[in-house]
Hints:
By secondary structure, the protein is mainly alpha-helical. It has one domain (6-54). 60% of the residues lie in helices and 0% in strands. It has 4 helices and no strands. The radius of gyration is 12 Å and the shape is globular.
Amino acid sequence: MKHKGNRQLAAQLILEALTVLKENGGELKGRDVIRAVGERAELDDWAWQRYEKTGNIRWQALL
């Protein structure tokens, strides 16, 4: 599977996060939003890679 690129991945993640918030009455702790997005979004291996300099997981850093 070809990765989508940062912009397309970021757009997907933001849409998913807004959907999660809407389904939960507009309020949810940030860590709960991140957990829910990670469970629901279709993320490839590239999105799960860590940035070399920071060690952050790509999709979480974009969200």
